[in-house]
From TrEMBL:
Its EC number is 2.3.1.225. This is Palmitoyltransferase. The chain crosses the membrane at residues 12-36, 42-62. It is a multi-pass membrane protein. The DHHC domain is required for palmitoyltransferase activity. The keyword Transferase applies.
Length: 148
């Protein structure tokens, strides 16, 4: 089971990088010189594309580097009544903490397990996941505009 999850994580990350780099390369070096005849159009669109690409990659790496795992600093002998006991981790966890069966840890404000991020999206990395998905969505919507 652990090998399957590792394989899915590897495929997800490889797909993300291949698709992103492939689209950027094909737009700058193949599509733009054919579609646009003015050098200013090619320059302007290439600059915008590189800006969006840097934004996507930056949010991706910041989302991966900031983990939402709950790691207790001080062992609480008498936890607050709002805290719940996680039988898998064998410790008390704050409210809105959920255990992930894939990551095998408790996650603060867990949203979901993301195979592109190779970890759970939660409290500390959701602020990078949301702009990452919105910029990616708008980028692909702009690429597939049928009215161009």
């Amino acid at each position: 089971n652990r090998k399957k999850v590792a394989f899915i994580h590897t495929v997800g990350v490889a797909y993300f990088f291949l698709a992103t780099f492939g689209v950027v390369y094909s737009c700058i070096f193949i599509a733009y010189p054919v579609v646009y005849t003015e050098p200013k159009d090619i320059q302007w669109r290439s600059i915008c594309l590189i800006y969006v690409f840097i934004n996507i990659i930056g949010n991706y790496f910041l989302g991966i580097l900031n983990k939402s795992n709950y790691t207790p600093g001080i062992q609480v002998t008498d936890p607050p009544t709002s805290w719940k006991f996680c039988s898998v981790c064998d410790r008390y966890c704050p409210p809105r903490t959920h255990h992930c069966e894939i990551c095998k840890v408790c996650i603060l404000k867990r949203d979901h397990h993301c195979f592109f991020f190779c970890q759970c999206v939660g409290l500390r990395n959701q602020r990078y996941f949301i702009p990452y998905t919105y910029v990616l969505m708008f980028y692909f919507l702009e690429r597939t505009d049928p009215y161009k």
